[in-house]
Design brief:
- By secondary structure, the chain is an alpha/beta fold.
- It has helices at residues 37-41, 43-52, 69-74, 109-116, 147-154, 162-175, 192-207, 209-218, 235-245, 286-309, 315-318, 322-336, 347-359, 367-371, 374-391, 397-409, 427-435, 440-448, 456-459, 462-478, 480-491, and strands at 28-33, 59-64, 81-87, 90-96, 99-104, 123-126, 182-185, 224-227, 253-255, 260-264, 280-282.
- A five-stranded parallel beta sheet has the order 5-2-1-6-7, sandwiched between helices. Strands 4-3-9 form a three-stranded mixed beta sheet. A three-stranded mixed beta sheet has the order 8-10-11, covered by helices on one side.
- Strand 3 (81-87) and strand 4 form a beta hairpin.
- Helix 10 packs across helix 16 (397-409).
- It is globular.
- Bound molecules: D-mannonic acid (CS2).
Length: 496
């Protein structure tokens, strides 16, 4: 079967939405670093809307910093792909035309730098995951001993890392007398803008202090909160879509209807009329970030480990188990007391909507997908909230079970005895630590020595250590579902 492309798009069934603008007229105003499914289902859709509104400056050049797979999916399709929005039994299909092409950075780093230095580029967005920032999780400093960071510092003309590409391109723009672009981090990290700014400035300062001064004075790194559930595409999704389209689309992405993007109003230059495109611009993103990270992502991670350990492969299956569903509410009860909701966010309504989003059976969101990279996710999703609860002398039984479930997951074996590969940058280290421990209490104590994950102040708090150890013992004795059920009675109490 032929592929979706500029040549075949005209033959698609009439009920599929197509780009409503002339793609030949579109300029490249955005470069995206780390082009995965999330960008294609979220930010690229907003830029596609901008193009459809008649502002043709906002085409996107995508870049993969590592693998050529997205380039192989999209370049033969002229950047075209289908966004499949699924809600229960309903499905809507839309072909997105915003992406103009994908560069594979390691194949041609200089081409990517020069594309980012183009005068028409005003925005660089990035989704490089938590680990792509190359910042020490404890100190927040650039990891100069990371081999790729060291390589960038030695030769910024051929960068390897996200901060490296940004520094190299900003250097080229400064030399050319251009303004910086606005760097919009779209990763699920608190203060994501501040983080990428810190990495970029540290690298720039090591290379040329005057470049760092220029970036400090003229650059913009707004904080953002981004939200849309985008499960990984499966071969079955592609096969089903081919039947509908009559052509193969290897670049398709699937997502829920919900989508949200909150951006701090801080730009270095031109941008689309974001407000008219449904994007919220605000001075204070932090309360949005905290609410999303601790409610949505906190529950997601806890559910992912408990669900995956107990054989619930998908999020909607996990929340259909009464004990796990009630447990999610208990995590939210705990997290809620740590939030200062932003104006306009009704937490009760947000929780109801979140549960409905988790229940969406058509998404087929795998618990194992969410379980990935837990060492990078735990701090902002569960540990920060737990620390604030303890500071206020409140209990953390529900959060502690999520944390203990992450620890159990590090053993690489599910409750039914199935072995799996732990997909986490610290997996080798956690395996070593677990290998040296004999009892459950020793296992917990060993993992708590990971200072890249657990802040020392939290580990020094006996209440924290006790709560996580009790939860871990309960998981060993009863399994995830029963441990969740048993946690509920204690989690409901407000006092410690
Ligand atoms: C998920 C997120 O995989 C994960 O860690 O928790 O990708 C989640 O689906 C998104 O943040 C939703 O916006």
């Amino acid at each position: 079967m032929s592929r979706l492309s500029a040549a075949t798009i005209g033959g698609l069934p009439a009920d599929i939405a197509l780009p409503g603008y002339d793609r030949a007229e579109v300029g490249t105003g955005v470069v995206h670093l780390g082009i995965g499914a999330f960008h294609r289902a979220h930010q690229a859709v907003v830029f596609d809307d901008a193009l459809a509104s008649g502002d043709l400056r906002w085409g996107v050049l995508g870049a993969s910093l590592r693998s050529p797979s997205v380039a192989e999916q999209l370049n033969p399709q002229d950047g075209l792909y289908t966004l499949v929005v699924r809600d229960g039994t309903e499905e809507t299909l839309r072909v997105i035309g915003a992406i103009q092409g994908v560069l594979v950075a390691p194949h041609s780093p200089a081409d990517l730098v020069s594309a980012m230095a183009d005068p028409d580029v005003h925005i660089v967005t990035l989704t490089v995951t938590e680990k792509g920032y190359r910042l020490d999780p404890v100190t927040g400093a650039l990891m100069t001993d990371d081999p790729d960071v060291a390589a960038d510092l030695a030769d910024i003309a051929a960068p390897r890392t996200a901060p490296g590409f940004i520094v190299a391109a900003l250097q080229a723009r400064r030399t050319a007398g251009l303004k910086p672009f606005t760097v919009i981090s779209c990763d699920n990290l608190p203060h994501n803008g501040r983080r990428i700014r810190a990495g970029v400035l540290a690298m720039a300062r090591a290379i040329d202090p005057s470049l760092a001064d220029w970036i400090e004075a003229h650059g913009a790194f707004p904080q953002t909160m981004i939200d849309r559930i985008v499960p990984a595409t499966t071969p079955d999704d592609i096969a089903r879509l081919s039947q509908r389209l009559g052509v193969d689309d290897h670049g398709m992405v699937k997502a829920e209807p919900f989508t949200q993007w909150v951006i701090e109003e801080r730009f270095a230059g031109d941008r689309p009329d974001f407000a008219s495109l449904g994007v919220q611009l605000t001075d204070a993103v932090e309360p949005w970030e905290d609410a999303k990270l601790r409610l949505l992502n906190g529950a997601h991670s806890a559910l992912a480990y408990l669900g995956a350990l107990s054989g619930h492969d998908y999020v909607h299956e996990a929340v259909a188990a009464p004990a796990l569903r009630t447990y999610v509410e208990a995590v939210w009860d705990e997290a809620e007391t740590t939030l200062s909701p932003p104006p306009g966010l009704d937490i009760a309504a947000y929780r109801t909507e979140l549960m409905a989003r988790f229940e969406n059976p058509a998404l087929m969101h795998r618990t194992r997908q969410i379980a990935m990279d837990g060492s990078q996710k735990l701090p902002q999703r569960l540990l920060a909230g737990a620390a604030e609860r303890l500071a206020a002398w409140r209990g953390i039984a529900a959060m502690a079970l999520g944390i203990a479930a992450w620890m159990k997951w590090q053993s690489g074996v599910t409750e039914s005895g199935e072995a799996f590969v732990v997909d986490d940058p610290l997996a080798v280290r956690t395996a070593e630590l677990l290998g040296g421990a004999e009892t459950d209490a020793e296992r917990v104590a060993a993992l708590l020595t990971l200072s890249a994950v657990f802040p020392p102040a939290l580990v020094a708090d006996d209440r924290f250590v006790t709560a996580v150890t009790i939860a871990y013992l309960s998981l060993s004795a009863h399994g995830a579902v029963e441990a969740a059920a048993r946690t509920l009675s204690s989690a409901r109490g407000e006092g410690y």
